[in-house]
Amino acid sequence: MTPHSLAFYADVITTGKLLGLEPSATPDEVTAVLGTDCAENSLDTTTMWRDYGMVEFHWLRSAPGHPWEGHHFTLHVHRLSYWGGSSVNKTLRDRYGRFARRTDFTKLRRILERRGVPLIQVPQPADGIDEFRQPASGVSVMSERGPRQASDLYTIHSPMA
Fold this sequence. Notes:
Oligomer: single chain
Number of helices: 5
Radius of gyration: 16 Å
């Protein structure tokens, strides 16, 4: 049986969606699924993101007063190593259960391979970071290599197509 958090990550990588939400989801659509327990951030009047702990959704708009357009969402899995399950939105915990502080990327990759979901390695200039892309969903996955540990899942990023 696949641990629940691994199943969640595999579902996101396979579909490019989080609980049915696409990267293009509006702020109201995200609120309807993930709730209002988030930090809303903005650098200026044309960018906004909501931080739900491990999950962030990002939006852009052409000018103030124009509608927000979904840009991408990212799962910051690395945050679990510091904050544990408290960084996972309640909706996700209720649906998927416990999330481990660390996720062995090789286990996740094996699950994806069994599902017939390939990951293609992308040349990455950063030391200690490997990047992969899932061709069908467009999702990118980053893993972090440590000197004495297996490769840990770092982020999952789903861009707007």
